[in-house]
Amino acid sequence: MSEYQPQMTVHSAVELVVAVVDTAQAESVLRVYRENRALVSFECMARGTARTEMLDLLGLGETSKAIVMCLAGHQLAQHLLERLGYELKMRYPGRGIAFSVPVTGIGVRWHKLLTQAEQTEVLDMDRAEKKDGFDVVAVVMEQGYTNLVMDVARKAGARGGTVISARGIAEDEVKQFFGIEIQAEKEIVFLVVKSEEKQEIMTAIMKAVGMKTKSHGIVLSLPVSNAIGLAD
């Protein structure tokens, strides 16, 4: 399989772990990720908009938040959630929330790096992949390449995207595996795409801004259960 052809999985061997915490707790989350050998993580700032009673219900006491994410194999993702619950006491109200989302597509080399320590079965989804509905394609890359991503994605069938700024942290193992230096300041582009067009869009983006380019991009996809407001 070409490195530009995204690896698709039925029972996802890679997951995106997401923690939403008070800004003061962001470094503690990153410490848990690092100590448990999560190889690549991202942090971005956010602001909660829920009403006070909803914040209390979700365990989110203030509106200034950090979203701290990492990519991990399935087994490590479950372990990270356990450690966050224990070490940061996120099992209790008021300590933030954390969850994991299955990654349904990712570059072959990233898939190999993130799952090399796990014996999780990976299946090719070329035939089994759903042909209707939508997926989210996420592109994490160096700053300054958003327009290139959007141009390439639109030519491959995407309609539009949303961009956020983030700080990326890559462990030495990632740098050695790819043989590159990875900058801290990142941009993340999210695109909601038709499932039948996902593979073509991801492949085009990988060729334009993948790890072998100056943008050092990671391209992955996440499942969408339902969506509204998207033009045909």
From TrEMBL:
Classify the source by domain of life.
Bacteria
PROSITE patterns, per database record: PII_GLNB_DOM
Q: Which GO terms describe its molecular function?
A: enzyme regulator activity
User: Can you cite a GO biological process for this protein?
Assistant: regulation of nitrogen utilization
Protein name in the entry: P-II family nitrogen regulator
